[in-house]
Amino acid sequence: MTTTPYGAWPSPLSAAQVAAGSVVPSWPRLVGDEVWWSQMRPAEGGRVVV
Question: In terms of pTM, does the model score above 0.70?
Fold first, then answer.
């Protein structure tokens, strides 16, 4: 059995792989009768789209 520090464990996933799957809409706003939001895209260099 391997002992690791508290809160640490080996994982087959890298931080980049986890972040690439986390496209989350944020800052939703009403523009007229439409809903607009920004979305960060980690897989595209962290660019933000509306």
Answer: no
